[in-house]
Amino acid sequence: MELIMDEKPIPIQFWGGRGWVITLDINVLIVEKVSGVFKVKVDTEDEVRLQRRWLRWRLETSEEESISLPGIKRAQRKSLKLIIRFLPYVPQIDKAKEWKLRVRSGIDNSINLGRWIPRELRDGWESERARTGLLSLLSQENLESCLSDEQRDALNFASTDLVELTSNANSEIMESELVGQRHFFDLIEKSPLTDEQARAVICFDNRVQLLAAAGSGKTSVMVARAAYAVEKEFIQPSRILLLAFNRAAAEELQERVRNRFRAAGIESFGVQASTFHALGMKIIGKATGKKPTVAPWLDEASSRRKILEIVTELSEDDETFRYNWDLFRLIYPDAPAEPQSSDYDAYDKGSKQSGYLSASGDIVKSEGERKIADFLFFNMIPFQYEAKYSVSLSDSKYGQYRPDFYYPDIKVWHEHWALGKDGKPPASFLRYRDSMDWKKAAHQKYGTTLLESTWYDVIYGKGIPDLAKQLSQLGLEGTWSPDRTPESRWYQAMDREQLAGFVRTFMSHVKSNSWTEDDLAGRVDAELLGLDNYRTQLFLSIYWPIHRAWQRHLAAEEYIDFEDMLVEATKLCESGAYESPFDLILVDEFQDVSQARARLLSGLLKPPGRYLLAVGDDWQSINRFAGADVSIMTDFGRWFGEGPRMAITTTFRSPEPISMPARDFVLKNPKQLTKEVTATRTGDGPGIQVIRTTNPADEVVRLVERLGRSLERGAIKSLSGRDVSVDILGRYNFQKDLVPKQMPKGIVVRFRTVHKSKGSEADFIIVPGMTIGKYGFPSHIEDDPLLKLALPQPEVFDFAEERRLFYVALTRARQSVYLLTEEGNISPFITELLKAGAIARDYGGDAPMRVCTECGIGTLKVQRGAGGSFLGCSRFPACTYTESW
Q1: Residue 865: partners with Cβ closer than 8 Å, 6 or more residues away
Q2: Which residues, 6 or more positions from 779, have their beta carbon under 8 angstroms from its beta carbon?
Q3: Residues 6+ apart with CB under 8 A from 284
Q4: Given pLDDT bands bounded at 50, 70 and 90, which one contains residue 335?
Q5: In sequence order, what DSSP letters do the residues of 283-327 get, joined into one string?
Q6: What phi and psi, each to the nearest 5 degrees, are found at residue 735?
Q7: What share of the chain is helix, strand, coil (3-state, %, to 5)?
Q8: Rounded mean pLDDT of 128-132?
Q9: Which residues pair with 56 in a beta bridge?
Q10: What does pTM read for this prediction?
């Protein structure tokens, strides 16, 4: 008797005392008796049972049929029960064989073609296995005893780990292609591809994220991958798209594709290189039949001017808007995180106390007091800071009482308490409550009027409006004068252009994320961002009128801006109104992708069988002002689906004394993706050098002349084979005035902002303005917590983008970097490099640079006092550490 089902139905016969035959056909039992032929379909074990009834064995079905099997023997009963248990699984066993054949054939075919097995194919196999329930077969006891060797192998294969199986196959494909396609990899670019680059080309998965170190040849990988896809006949040329962020980069990519494909004998006709914006216009034009017109005022400088034009219009029509605009700019340009701070910017020689310089010229003790003093100053309200109290209270325990503010016109005193949101002072403020009680008791005892405010209410709450209201009730009315000239020339307020730039940055993120007014209001109310405060509401009160006016200007002239263009193009992709013709998309500078770009890209990749190579370096994400969101790169899988994350880490540009300190510097932010960096050159000179100077323009001239003399005597040479190149990389555009009027022979000096320098390189890099402050490096202008409202995943690391910007500046150099700073005002970035031992040389100081022993942030400099020279911290007055010299 045969129990095994394999390729064909095999009859199984049981002879009883009176004669009957059972034939097995797939999952049907055919019982032939003298009385007739009975067919019993077995889909589950519960449908058919072999039961003993009235001294006879019978087949009983769920449909209450009963077929007697007279004379059936014990061995026959055992076999028949096993057949009944086995029959429901016959179709699944067949599916297991088919599934195994498809998987094995797919893997073998990929190996033979040398084509990477993509995740989408593997996921399809996984889905089919889950859909057909193959894994459930493995839980059936004794089932294997009913199977042939082929069936048993198929069933066992159903439990295979597809991730491991395809991973092993892809490893085999990778190693085979590295050898078999070596000729292609050697010729496709001017220089042979490294193994890292070649592996990134071969890994032809649906979603591949490629982390590219600065100067590692990412463009070579993009061009080679497109050529590889055409050469191997994976993708037709017309279905390949390369995306860049500006027209120049897109044109360079197109030319590179044309030249390198031709050199390799590969057809490039149809391969497209485009910007996101040009693509968005094409999508809208094709789907709607009307190509949009881009507003002519969307570059950084023009958009700021447009914002200011709108502000002028709104100010003329709405006095409240004008007041709120200037109030935010002058009083609320920043928001300190805590009442206890030592980030002072002024020093009072009389009291020998450090503090904050206010518009009135007073040096006050806290940011809250500065906001009060500034508000009073710009409201033309007379006040005295820390005037002597009208009653002498000096005793053995307390000195003479000096309240924070005094309003002589109404003879009212004002105390500003260092209390946080919880109503408590900082833990380090010992006996602060006792002091508060003593001061309040004095006013009560002597009948003087006391106004009170707290640090939290002034910085985040309605402390300033409440103060104005109280003063008004006491008869002291202010006259708002936002154009009043500060008493000290050292005082700096946020100017109108800075605020316009911040508004445009905020707008880019709001529009990219399609946030509505209600959306942002909901995010504020949720308090998850810690932004439910007066300052936030004040900003939104000026932002939304500007936003709405911006949209009106676009509509009136039938223009579209870049954010709206990308959002509209995305909607057309997602709705099916536009069907993407691209199977392979390669994106350059992926770290600068905005939310709008990411959604458009996701829409293009929505159909099955699409491939994405996202090439970028999150360490170089520096375009937040233009809507870039680095979290798209760090959270790549959530946006586009999981896939391999690879890296090309060999830099051909910066030598090790620059590339390694730069790497360590940027990785101080734990949110940055970690990768190794290997330099092909160890460097034959000092990598990072610091020059302390009070006249950066003269210093640049001297430095360029020194390089010219070094070139003449052969001490330096150009690594590009042309003139020695020197790039001055400014944090701000106004630093372009540092370019010398005359150049030594063989030296070319150019100016770029650091933002515009990405993708460029030079033999020598000069970074001016490495100081502290709003126009220092790091800049304090753009790191406003309000951006958290517009960013789905805001950054929390201090100066996160400024740190990446400095990394970009350092890694433009082929030979050396010169950092220009000012004694006594040295950038904390320089201090950090100094502590890490990354500064090779420093010039211009009376003593070698050393990190301050006390604060660990500033550097020590030579100072001269009545008792002679000494070393003091460069952060003075924030840090007052000194030592002898």
Answers
A1: none
A2: 731, 732, 802
A3: 290, 291, 292, 565, 568, 569, 572
A4: confident
A5: HHHHHHS----B-S--SHHHHHHHHHHHHHHHHHH-HHHHHHHHH
A6: -75, 0
A7: 45, 15, 40
A8: 82
A9: 53
A10: 0.80
